[in-house]
Amino acid sequence: MRHYTQFYIDGAWVDPVTPQTAEVINPATEAVSGTIALGSPADVDRAVAAARRAFAGWSVSTVAERLDLLRTIQGVYTRRMQELGEAVTEEMGAPIALGTGFHVGLGAGHLQTAIEVLESFRFEEQRGPTLLRREPIGVCGLITPWNWPLNQVTVKVFPALATGCTSVLKPPQLAPYSAQILAEILHEAGVPAGVFNMVQGQGSVIGAALSRHPDVDMISFTGSEPVGVQISKDAADTVKRVGLELGGKSAWIVLDDEDLAANVAAATGGMMVNAGQTCSAGSRLLVPKARMAEALAAARDAANGVAVGDPLGEVGMGPVVSKGQWNVVQDYIRKGIEEGAELIAGGPGRPEGLDKGFYCKPTVFKASNNMVIAREEIFGPVLVIIGYDDTDHAVEIANDSPFGLGGYVSGRDREAAIALARRMRTGAIWVNGGFDFHAPFGGYKRSGNGREWGEHGFHEYLEVKSIIG
Ligand code: NAD
After folding, report:
1. How far is the C-alpha of 8 from the C-alpha of 175, rounded, in Å?
2. For residue 144, how far is its CA from the centre of ligand 1 (angstroms)?
3. Which of 310, 347, 405, 457 lies 20 to 30 Å from 11, alpha-carbon distance?
4. pLDDT classification of 258: cutoffs 50, 70, 90
């Protein structure tokens, strides 16, 4: 059992102003795995005041000092990676190999990337008669979701530190453990008092208090669209900058070539990673209509081949994060059946043999793009397959979505794939796989307005000043 009953404020672990705790549920067992403290606006006031005091010094720290600190953090982070991964598995149900592998690796990658970017970042440059300066924006409120909990915290905390900002982190209530360990890591590495602070608790209390706080200069939010909208409204009265990384319904276009079945299998497997709880998941798979039967067979085999079970075992998919999320996924599966989508694999209920834990069946539908299951983000292991007539039609379907976060194109003809990628209205497109920590990540349309990762992630935390003449 884990008991995290204190917040990290002004360089120390402190009790909440008003004691209140909540249980954290292990999604694999439905048992209580620990408790966390729930904060109040008074805790936010303390954390913001500490961050404001620390900003005076940290904002004028040298690049060398910040690099030193990030490298020290890297040493401690590396030592505690196994523990972090175990915490991710316990809090949100990722298979342990994924938790201690990719989840933790993403955090390590963002840390290394922040170091690399900081080594050569130009905070000041002369442009004609103007001296252009990029200065830390101030005190930042960082609000994060539960699905890739460590990724989303680290992609905010390290750029904020690297650019000379101070911050108050509000981790997700459903998955609070890995953030708690990260705070311990930052403390051990010697982050100066007040530069980083963390208050756990409910979004509607802590997140809202940060968004409205007159002494917070910007909010970086990752999460759902409705909450992003609410935060923007809450932040409007104090004219804060708000960076939004929201949901998606990303298209994966498989080209009509000889690798079709293998690419469909890869896309189906990809959808089930992290139990489909990935904002940029390729949840709409677009295949040539003429080869639909071949595509459906490949998707069925791939979905049925995903081993679902105890995330501490050797499985491909664990549970979804919570009972609430399980219900959401079940509702969408039922909705898909009701609206006439053809069920190809999976379906409602738990997989056979699993009667406890928030497990879903890896599910595939053949659908059309106007169905609810093709338009709304399900955030679970549910793939919809849609047929296209030709590549123009594929692009049209891909772009016919309220979202624009990710996208995928696979096929042998790389040039043809890149030509399609150019036409897709979305923030990041992977062509035949690939991975780059320096590639900006963020959304078009209702998927948000910011860009995180790499150098672009630094700009979120910087103001631009012109000194002319
Ligand atoms: P959520 O919006 O419910 O919660 C996200 C965070 O906001 C949590 O910490 C929550 O406590 C807090 N919050 C809730 N109400 C708030 C309020 N009124 N004011 C301030 N903060 C509040 O999202 P979730 O269910 O945790 O995460 C899933 C969503 O996140 C999905 O829509 C997913 O697509 C999205 N997401 C986007 C990205 C991206 O980079 N674009 C990455 C991961 C997840």
Report:
1. 17
2. 6
3. 457
4. confident
Q: For a pocket test of ligand 1, which of 154, 221, 224 has the largest count of ligand atoms closer than 8 A to its C-beta?
A: 224
Q: What residues are paired with 130 via a beta bridge?
A: 127, 468
Ligand 1 atom 14: residue of nearest CA:
203
d(CA 276, CA 431): 20
Tell me the H-state helices in 237-371: 260-272, 292-304, 323-338
pLDDT, tens digit, 9 for 90 and up, residues 398-437: 999 999 999 999 999 999 999 999 999 999 999 999 999 9
- Cα separations in angstroms, 140 against 100, 156, 243, 244, 457: 29, 10, 11, 13, 14
Which helix (DSSP H) or strand (DSSP E) does residue 466 occupy? strand 462-468
Q: Is the CB–ligand 1 distance for residue 143 below 6 Å?
A: yes
How much distance in Å is there from the Cα of 431 to the middle of ligand 1? 27
One-letter amino acid at 302 equals: A
For residue 208, report the distance from its CA to the centre of ligand 1, in Å: 12
Q: How far apart are the first and last CA of the chain?
A: 62
The predicted-structure confidence for 293-340, as pLDDT tens digits, reads as follows 999 999 999 999 999 999 999 999 999 999 999 999 999 999 999 999
Q: Whose alpha carbon is nearest atom 12 of ligand 1? A: 203
Q: Whose CA is nearest to atom 26 of ligand 1?
A: 145
